[in-house]
Design brief:
This protein is mostly beta strands. The strands form 2 sheets. A 6-stranded mixed β-sheet has the order 2-10-9-4-5-6, with no helix packed on it. Strands 1-3-8-7 form a 4-stranded antiparallel β-sheet, with no helix packed on it. The chain starts with a strand and ends with a strand.
């Protein structure tokens, strides 16, 4: 059973930083691209960062220059370093494969507020 488990969210003030982690349990990890998604209340889920199996990265314009996605294949883990956080970054953050998606995990809540 393939499963993604996200962690690292929390409450942070504007301008602050958080580092999210996503562990892939029970799956082959290194051959797949991975993505971080987010869903704000009343909004559709959106892809904010993607990392290919070879480490190439892509970002949504809204997070470019502030977020960094990385992966550790030995640990089957993908990370999202989020800096200069803004209130509009508030959302539940999920990880998944952009291709060959599996069931969504619980996600991790990120709240940016003063």
């Amino acid at each position: 059973q393939v499963q993604f488990v996200e962690s690292g969210g929390g409450l942070v003030q504007p301008g602050g930083s958080l580092r999210l982690s996503c562990v892939a349990a029970g799956s082959i990890f290194n051959i797949y691209a991975m993505g971080w998604y987010r869903q704000a209340p009343g909004e559709q889920r959106e892809l904010v960062a993607r990392i290919g199996s070879s480490g190439n990265t892509n970002y949504a314009d809204s997070v470019k220059g502030r977020f960094t996605i990385s992966r550790d294949n030995a640990k089957k883990t993908v990370y999202l370093q989020m800096n200069s956080l803004k209130p509009e970054d508030t959302a539940v953050y999920y990880c998944n494969r952009p291709v060959s998606q599996i069931s969504w995990g619980q996600g991790t809540q990120v709240t940016v507020s003063s």
